User: What shape does this take?
Amino acid sequence: MDLIKDMDERIAYVKTLIHMASIDKNILETETEQINQLAQLYQIPGDRMQEIWNYTQEKSDLHSIVSQIQGRKTKLMLLYELLMVCHADKMYGPAEQTGMNEICGMLGIEKDKLHELERLIVESQNIGNKLKVALEMGGY
Assistant: This one.
């Protein structure tokens, strides 16, 4: 991924995604698949992925992990991808919402930007559902 050049920052990015996926104490297969796809996109070696998945057992200090994420564009992309992980199971519950607010604060991103991204995710899902109906693939 061109946006994140440093491997340690990429790993911190994916650890933050895993944290959000596990915030409700249950990582679903859809969330695991999405995180693994992102890890491949970010060109994280397979041996490092084991270290990253072990993070879910360790639960290292989230603030020290999130503090490795640099650059506003990278932080905004992380928030977007965190929201995608939150919505992967079609449920954006209170624990996830609280976690998103905490991470948003750690990243130094204003809450209004988080709310804008949340609205865009919901709009995107609605468009996807309408497209499925139009293509007679189910939906709603």
About this structure: The chain has a mean pLDDT of 87. The first helix runs from residue 7 to 21.
